[in-house]
Design brief:
Layout: H1 2-28, H2 30-39, H3 44-108
Length: about 110
């Protein structure tokens, strides 16, 4: 369940970041900036605040992606380590079984 919610959160964050990136591109596009100025929907200060906020969101998303990549690599290494431990346990069990057989054979002689 938690994994499903995390996937939904990631999809929502991805769509927000995509919209933010598109908006940033439109604001930086000269025609988009002219249209905004002509319609007087936003003053330059508001545009700068939006650009700064969107830039921060994009930076935060990049940092999150780096952390997620590191976490994924760490999880992969932990899984490899756990598999090695399981393999060693199996080998130890086999060695014990062989030891028991040898001990029984020696007692018979």
């Amino acid at each position: 369940m938690g994994k499903k919610n995390k996937n939904v959160d990631n999809l929502q964050l991805d769509s927000i970041m995509e919209m933010a990136s598109t908006l940033m591109d439109n604001l930086q596009n000269s025609k988009g900036a002219e249209a905004v100025n002509q319609e007087e929907l936003l003053d330059s200060e508001a545009v700068q605040k939006v650009e700064k906020t969107l830039g921060n969101l994009l930076d935060n998303n990049s940092e999150k992606n780096v952390r997620n990549k590191f976490s994924g690599e760490l999880l992969s290494e932990m899984n490899k380590f756990n598999q090695q431990v399981q393999d060693l346990k199996k080998q130890m069990s086999e060695v014990r079984a062989q030891y028991t057989k040898v001990t029984k054979l020696l007692k018979k002689k």
